[in-house]
Structures are given as C-alpha cells and as structure tokens.
User: Which sequence fits this backbone?
C-alpha cells in the first residue's frame, strides 16, 4: 500500500541565506502547511535567514537549528538548508523530558514515540492508535528514546487498517 505524503522535503545549497530560504520555501510549500522543521549550516547569516523564514513562512510554526552538516533528500551536504513541511492534521509531534526530579531523586527518562498520519494510516481512532503503537514499539526496538513514523512495513505487518 502506498501512502499519500503530507510531508514535503527539500534541500538548498544556495550560498546566500535569503536565496536558500526562498528555494527551500518553493520546495516545501503546500496547502494547509502547519509546521516547518529545518536544519541549516551555521555558515549562513543567521539573522538574515531568520528574517527571510519569517517572511516566507508567515503564519506557520517554524522550528530549526544550526548544524555542521545537513542530511536531506539529496543526501549529506555541508553549508546547506534542509528540512520538511507538514500539512495540518497530518501528524502530531510530541517531545519528552530527559531528566526529571521526583521527590529528592533525579530520574533519567527516555521516551519512544510512534507517529501516524490521518487518514493515510487509518480513519478510525482504534486503527490509528494500533499503527502508532506498532511504530512506538519499532522505535523501542531500534534503541529507545526515538521517534518512529509509521511506514508501509508497519502497516503490512498488521499494525493498523
């Protein structure tokens, strides 16, 4: 079963920060875009990059960080801008704490998550939960403290409808 993608990826190697953001926007723009996640080289003019991100992605939640190398749809590159956009309602992102203070103790907590996309991974809450659960167990099997997006393999293994 092939799943429709509500996630668009792109990677720009433009040397100029504004040009890189414009190319990136053209590559990931989609209807009802709700979240943009990006990784960029620290060699860019970061204030200029941030300003252009605000202009190009006005009204969209944008999260990013600098890197010393970027992995994207065309593979590993240095001095690039790479990332993805997510359509509204296509997935839910969650983050977990790593160290928690409980009473007088400090406890290290790991969190593994399964991520699903409606309606690609199911139309009923029970099937979405089943696929998310299967993806979460795949994340745990891969080493814990990870996020695993549902895949065709998980669907084919009976993880959901």
Assistant:
């Amino acid at each position: 079963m092939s799943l429709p993608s509500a996630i668009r990826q792109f990677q720009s190697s433009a040397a100029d920060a504004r040009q890189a953001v414009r190319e990136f926007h053209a590559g990931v723009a989609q209807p009802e875009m709700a979240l943009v996640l990006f990784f960029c080289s620290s060699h860019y003019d970061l204030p200029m990059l941030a300003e252009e991100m605000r202009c190009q992605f006005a009204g969209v939640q944008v999260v990013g960080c600098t890197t010393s190398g970027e992995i994207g749809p065309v593979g590993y590159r240095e001095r690039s801008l790479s990332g993805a956009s997510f359509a509204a309602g296509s997935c839910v992102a969650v983050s977990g704490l790593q160290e928690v203070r409980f009473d007088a103790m400090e406890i290290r907590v790991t969190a593994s998550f399964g991520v699903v996309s409606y309606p690609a991974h199911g139309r009923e809450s029970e099937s979405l939960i089943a696929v998310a659960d299967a993806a979460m167990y795949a994340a745990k099997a891969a080493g814990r403290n990870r996020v695993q997006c549902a895949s065709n393999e998980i669907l084919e293994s009976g993880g959901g409808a």
